[in-house]
Amino acid sequence: MALKSIVLAVFALTLSMNLTAQDAKYLRNCQELRGADLKELPDSLFDKSLIELAQIFNTDKQASWHNFIDTYNRNFAPIQDSVTKILEIGIFNGASHKMWKCFFQNAEVYGIDIKQKPWVEKLGIHTYIANQANREQLQGFIDKHKGGFDIIVDDGGHWMNHQQVSLGFLFKHLKPGGLFIIEDVHTSIPKFYEGFGVDAVQSNTTLKMINDYITTEKIVSEYLLPEEIKYLEQNIEYVELMKRKNGLHSTLCVFRKKK
Ligand SMILES: C[S@@+](CC[C@H](N)C(=O)[O-])C[C@H]1O[C@@H](n2cnc3c(N)ncnc32)[C@H](O)[C@@H]1O
Question: What is the 7 CA–ligand 1 centroid distance (Å)?
Fold first, then answer.
């Protein structure tokens, strides 16, 4: 189908649904990718890799930025069809949630943020207002949407307590074999990134917690409850820590839960 027809169809849909320009851009992307009402589109349009999608949606996960997408692509491409529930903490303008929705076509996509994101909710992404460092608020999210996530990504506030409380509280809500990813672990390094709650002797950092786990298989964190520590130690299958030499010190950690 000619590009003109796609543009016209999206324009008509935009008018009928009264969408914002940003929503229309997403719709155009998704229609190109999923062919919602555009059945004559060639199959090749639906074959976008995560690497391409990260660029289309302009998230900071893309190759020219933090390049976390490289690790995501390796971990997520093999499970693309089987993922049914993905949660990402930190929505901002919705770029990565839209990307997940296009990529995981059999999945419901969930987002947690401290701010309301009504335009993202309108796109069929389940949004929930919560502070990721507050267990009661996270429990509110679980009460509403239940657990059983294939994937949980933490791209929220990136403070030490944010990252560790979310890992401790939400890990039990992953499916067996599920993946929990913490982005921007480089906020643990005050020499490069200030203002994320690192103490004077750097004893409370997420990076230290991960490195200590790698060497001792023990989780040490002042932010976690004893039962959360026990659950993590008993249920982590592996930890993959990725640090990129890209001037941003981009660091990401993947935890896989035992099957
Ligand atoms: C880096 S942006 C997310 C970007 C998005 N995931 C993407 O890749 O396109 C971080 C988001 O985290 C949210 N945030 C900050 N502190 C938070 C907290 N304590 N709990 C939940 N969300 C938080 C901010 O409001 C912001 O929208």
Answer: 32
**Quick check: CB of 129 below 6 Å from ligand 1?**
no
Give SS3 for 38.
Answer: coil
pLDDT (tens digit per residue) in 195-214? 999 999 999 999 999 999 99
Q: Is 115 in the pocket of ligand 1 (CB under 6 A)?
A: yes
158 tagged catalytic: yes
Examine the domain organization and report whether 86 and 116 are in the same domain: yes
Within this chain, do residues 205 and 229 fall inside the same structural domain, yes or no?
Answer: yes
In the chain, the number of structural domains is 2
Q: Indicate which residue's Cα is closest to atom 21 of ligand 1.
A: 113
**Which residues constitute the domain of residue 153?**
57-257
178 lines ligand 1 (CB under 6 A): no
Atom of ligand 1 at shortest distance to CA of 99? Answer: 9
State the closest ligand 1 atom to the C-alpha of 115, by its place in the atom list counted from 1: 25
Q: Are residues 28 and 135 in the same domain?
A: no
* Burial zone of 57 (CB within 10 Å; 0-12 exposed, 13-18 middle, 19+ buried): buried
Residues 9 and 107 in one domain: no
Which is the catalytic residue, given 66, 158, 162, 173? 158
Q: How does pLDDT run across 60-70, given as a tens digit for each residue?
A: 999 999 999 99
Q: Looking at the domain assignment, is residue 25 inside a domain?
A: yes
Q: What is the CATH number of the domain that holds 197?
A: 3.40.50.150
SS3 at position 204: coil
How big is the CA angle at 13 (ends 83 and 16), to the nearest 5 degrees?
Answer: 120
Query: In this structure, are 151 and 233 located in the same domain?
Result: yes
Q: Give the side-chain half-sphere CA count within 13 A for 137.
A: 14
Question: Would 52 be classed as within a structural domain?
Answer: no
